[in-house]
Design brief:
Blueprint: H1 4-16, E1 18-22, H2 27-39, E2 42-46, E3 59-63, H3 69-76, E4 82-87, H4 92-101, E5 105-108, H5 113-161, H6 165-178, H7 183-197
Parallel strand pairs: 1-2, 1-3, 3-4, 4-5
Helix pairs in contact: 1-5, 5-6, 5-7, 6-7
């Protein structure tokens, strides 16, 4: 059950959307455009497929059966809108187009207004969830990359200065603290210097105690 506040947030998100309907100019397109306007979002229409998406568009409703996937992919390159596919037939071709585009929602023709709000809200939610998930994955990958870099720098210091692991790690941390730099940045400097110097000794003096 969706709480009242949750439903209001969903409707507010839909009203903030900037949608583009890419569809042949017919009754279905006009019906969809009018309905989206009644929902309160900013909406425009285009046909044929534009060479590029307008910069402010964050949601597209697109008639997929009449446009080759390659053309759509070219227009979407570098952009990440929520995508609602519009199909006429449940055919292998239309299903492939939906999957290839990773559509966040689907509308079937002839359009029924009763289904537009649900698909619109679902597509916006799925799109937002994917963005948050991608950001978390990127952050985790960056963290793992940093840990591997620190580990590599510690091993270099251990081998080239005959240090125990905890001492090498402490030296690295002391240098980062002394220079007010992230440990990953100091580690990158050590690794890069080792590669440039071709294996010459690297020494990090301990930070004097105050």
């Amino acid at each position: 059950m969706i709480k009242k506040g949750g439903a209001q947030r969903i409707l507010a998100d839909l009203r903030s959307a900037r949608a583009l309907v890419i569809h042949t100019p017919d009754e279905d397109r006009q019906t969809l455009v009018d309905h989206l306007k009644r929902l309160g979002c900013t909406v425009s229409a285009a046909w044929p497929l534009p060479a590029a998406l307008p910069p402010d568009v964050d949601t597209i409703f697109i008639q997929v059966e009449d446009i080759p996937y390659e053309q759509i992919a070219t227009v979407l390159d570098g952009r990440n809108p929520a995508i609602i596919a519009i199909v006429t037939y449940e055919s292998p071709t239309s299903l492939k187009a939906i999957v290839d585009l990773n559509a966040h929602g689907v509308l079937s023709k002839p359009l029924r207004l009763a289904g537009v709000l649900n698909q619109f809200a679902l597509a916006r939610y799925r799109h937002g969830f994917e963005k948050r998930l991608t950001a978390k994955v990127s952050k985790l990958e960056e963290t793992l990359k940093g840990r591997r870099l620190v580990d590599k720098a510690v091993k270099l210091l251990m081998r080239m200065n005959e240090l125990e692991e905890d001492i090498a790690y402490q030296r690295l941390r002391e240098q980062a603290t002394a220079h007010r730099l992230p440990m990953t940045q100091v580690a990158q400097t050590i690794v890069s210097a080792h590669e440039i110097l071709g294996g010459s000794n690297l020494t990090l003096s301990s930070t004097p105690q105050k």
